[in-house]
Design brief:
By secondary structure, the protein is an alpha/beta fold. It has helices at residues 28-31, 48-57, 75-78, 143-146, 148-151, 164-172, 182-187, 217-230; strands at 2-7, 37-42, 63-68, 84-88, 97-105, 107-112, 122-124, 178-181, 193-199, 204-211. The radius of gyration is 38 Å and the shape is elongated.
Length: 282
């Protein structure tokens, strides 16, 4: 299930995008008017820096931010509900989607408040062996070899909750535990549950996906610009900007030449007058 929250370019607070962790569906009049650029993201992903950079650089482009669950993160692209989607791996990109990996998420175990295992700062997966894993065991590689309920065949034949919020509700009721990325543990934090880092579980990854073939040239250009922001391109950088032609190298100046002096006009020496002889007294 996906919840839609439309943010207009001018509706940012203090120059930053307002984060919608539990957005409510927008009124029908707004949801039927498609946005100029549509960003989808799986729950737990923080869009702060990327969403803010996009809206600051494109204040006149009406942009929508759609949060949803993992099971439909591919569909929003294939049915053209979104232009780009932040997804949680593993993700089937097929042959029609681009995908780049962005960062890893730390796995956390969520237990009911007051559980004895919460006294430690970290909990090993093996320490949870005697408890019931609420989510699908396939989501936690290695649980089938560690969990007592899997080894002895005593796991209750119950469907796993479709939503993380429902799984956390069962944890609060003391039914068992769940292992989720740190972002989801914080997103669904409540007074009657606590989370700790769990070891022995591989971290999950977040990536961004978009369509390989985009029929709308304008949307394709906006997708390219947004992917550039995600990759760290600044507002002043542009792959299409022509480089200035290099200036011709300045000619090297030789040593400064002294201006030639005009020869002094020839002046012949005047002959000396013979000294007059003084007559002595007779």
């Amino acid at each position: 299930m996906w919840h839609l929250a439309v943010l207009w370019g001018a509706q940012t607070q203090g120059g930053t995008v307002t984060e919608h962790q539990n957005p409510s569906p927008v009124p029908e009049s707004e949801s039927t008017d498609p946005a100029d650029f549509r960003i989808a993201y799986v729950s737990g992903v923080s869009l702060g820096k990327w969403g803010t950079a996009w809206t600051e650089r494109n204040p006149r482009i009406r942009t929508s931010f759609t949060m949803g669950e993992r099971d439909v993160q591919r569909r929003v692209l294939t049915d053209h509900t979104a232009d780009v989607s932040f997804v949680r791996l593993p993700f089937d990109r097929g042959d029609d989607l681009h995908l780049i990996k962005l960062y890893e998420e730390t796995p956390m175990v969520v237990l009911p408040k007051g559980h004895e295992l919460l006294e430690a700062d970290e909990i090993a997966l093996a320490d949870l062996a005697g408890l019931h894993l609420i989510q699908d065991p396939r989501d936690v590689p290695g649980w089938s070899e560690i969990g007592t309920e899997m080894i002895e065949g005593t796991r209750p034949d119950l469907p796993a909750p479709d939503r993380v919020v429902d799984a956390i509700e069962l944890v609060a009721a003391g039914i068992g535990f769940v292992i989720v990325p740190q972002s989801l543990a914080r997103l669904h934090d409540r007074k009657d549950v606590k989370h700790r880092r769990v070891t022995g579980v591989e971290p999950t990854e977040i990536g961004i996906a978009w369509r390989i073939d985009e029929d709308d040239a304008v949307r394709a250009e906006r997708v390219e610009d947004f992917i550039g922001i995600v990759r760290g391109r600044t507002a002043n950088s542009s792959r299409g900007r022509a480089e200035a032609e290099p200036e011709a190298p300045a000619k090297k100046k030789g040593p400064a030449q002294q201006p030639s002096k005009k020869p002094a006009p020839f002046r012949p020496r005047q002959p000396r007058k013979p000294a007059s002889k003084k007559r002595g007294r007779r």
